[in-house]
Amino acid sequence: xxxxxxxxxxxxxxxxxxxxxxxxxxxxxxxxxxxxxxxxxxxxxxxxxxxxxxxxxxxxxxxxxxxxxxxxxxxxxxxxxxxxxxxxxxxxxxxxxxxxxxxxxxxxxxxxxxxxxxxxxxxxxxxxxxxxxxxxxx
Length: 138
What we know:
Blueprint: H1 2-8, E1 32-35, H2 38-54, H3 57-66, H4 71-74, H5 79-84, H6 87-109, E2 116-119, H7 124-136
Parallel strand pairs: 1-2
Helix pairs in contact: 2-6
């Protein structure tokens, strides 16, 4: 209803400028992102999903849903698919949803003006060294 009322007046619920991460921060903040090749990311998503299934994620989800969970937890990627579907279908749905979410995150991160991208396609020690160097630089 509110959207219709605003539309009648020539307004919108959507702000004209998205201010998220466009202004300064209250405290000195360094925002970093890891840049990895798409094929590496795809393999990482698949490996992580397989590990989750090997460790009993379906049973864990069913157990969690049998009790009370928060609204935030209810929205976790793949939660309903894991609880309601076949394991094979749930696995592929979880991979697909995680892939879409990762793409969304990459797109969203580009809007952060102060973002420093770090090449993540290197040994973890090198990546960690770069991060520590940026954090300790004044």
